Amino acid sequence: MSRLRIPFLLIGVIALIVGLAACGDDDDDSSDSGGTNVSAEDCTPDKLQTQTAGTLTVATDKPAFPPYFEDDDPTNGRGFESAVAYAVADQLSYTTDQVEWVVEPFNSSYAPGPKDFDFDVNQISITPQRAEQVDFSSPYYEAKQAIVALKDSEAANIASLEEAKSADIGVQIGTTSLDAVNEEIEPDTDPKVFDTSNDVVTALKQGSVDAVVVDVPTAFFLTAVQVPEAKVVGQFSAPGGDQWGALLEKDSSLTDCVSFAIDELKDSGELAEIESEWISEKTDAPVLE
Question: Domain limits at 103?
Answer without folding.
Answer: 10-143+242-281
